[in-house]
Structures are given as structure tokens and as C-alpha cells.
Amino acid sequence: MARNYRELVLAGVAVLALAPAALAAPGEEPHPIPTLSQGLMTSISAVVVFSICAAVLLTVVWPKILKGLKDREGKILESIEAAEAAQQQAKIQLEQYNQALASARAEAQRMLEAAKVQQQKEAAEMRERAQAEAQALVEKAKRDIDAARKQALQEIYTQGATLATTVAAKVLQREVQGGDTQRMVDDALTTLAGSRN
């Protein structure tokens, strides 16, 4: 069908090209400036060719152009709608990301606070254990000192009793004179000092 229109347009152009020669009277040469009859024929043929071209353009070409423009407009509108939807989706994802980020920050802060509380609790427990151990060591040292003191007193009493017995035995073996008493005390102190070392 498009071929038929093309042939029709070519025929109209040929008619226009040959019209001045065809309109000249037989034996007359066509003038470069057309006469009134030639100009009228040229005008009529131009209007006919224009009308044919306009009809072909309006019936065949223009609907295709309109269809192409409408298709392009539809694609542009779809692209705009897709871009708006993508922008809306990006806004939603950005809000979700910001919410997730805020949530993660809050969770991290909560974890830091919990770790701080746990650390303080453990430090307090360690301090209490250290104090309890120190108190236990002090009590043990007191008991050890008390036991050592009791043992030393016991040894002093034992040595004192042994010494008193020894002195009494020596006294009983001889009669004590004034100077003997002092000498016995000195001997007892010397013996006591010797047993300490």
C-alpha cells in the first residue's frame, strides 16, 4: 500500500514537471514565463499534487507519526513513573536504613552500659574478695601470733619451772648465805638467757 502511494506521488511530480510543455499550443514553444492559461494550469496541478501529498501524509504518514509520538510519550511517562517509584523506594530504604542505624546505635549504647555495670559489679566483687582475703590473713596472723605468744609463754613457764627446780635443788644441797642468793639469781638469769638463744 505504501508503494502505491509512492508511485502516485511520483506520477504527480512528473505531471507537474511536464505540464508546461503539455499546455503549450502545438507548434508553440513553451515560454520561460508562463502565460495566464499556463499559470492557471500550473496552479491547479500544484493544488492537485499538494492535495494528493497532503492526503497521503494525513492518511498514511501522520497516523504513524502520531502513533510513534504516543508510544514515545507512553514510554517517557512510564520512565517518569518508574523513576518516581524508584525515588519513593529509595526514600523508604533510606528511612529503614536510618531506623536500623539508630537502633544499632541504641543497642551499642545499651551494650556499653551493660558492660560498664558488669565491670563495676565484678570490680566490687573482686574488692570484697580481696578485703575478705586480707581480713582472713590478718585473723590468721593474729592467731599465729597468739599461738606463738602462748607457746613462748609456755616455754618461759617451763624453763622458769625447770630453773626454779634446779635452783631449789642447789639450795637444798647447801645452806644459802647472803652472797649465795645473789649468785643463784645471777646463775638463773644466765641459764635463762642461755636457753633463749
SSE layout:
Blueprint: H1 2-23, H2 36-173, H3 178-196
Helix pairs in contact: 1-2, 2-3
Describe the protein:
- The chain has 197 residues and is mainly α.
- The protein has three helices and no strands.
- Helix 1 packs antiparallel against helix 2 (36-173) and helix 2 packs antiparallel against helix 3.
Summarize the structure.
91% of the residues lie in helices and 0% in strands. The protein has 197 residues and is an all-alpha fold.
Q: Please state the average pLDDT score.
A: 79
Main sheet: strands, sense, barrel: none
Principal-axis shape equals rod-shaped
Strand content: under 5%
- Along the chain, the helix and strand elements come as HHH
- Report, as a whole number of angstroms, the end-to-end distance: 142 Å
Please mark out the parts with pLDDT under 50 across 5 or more consecutive residues, or reply none.
none
> C-alpha Rg, in Å?
68 Å
- Total helical segments: 3
Number of strands: 0
What structural category arises from helix and sheet content?
mainly alpha
Helix content: over 70%
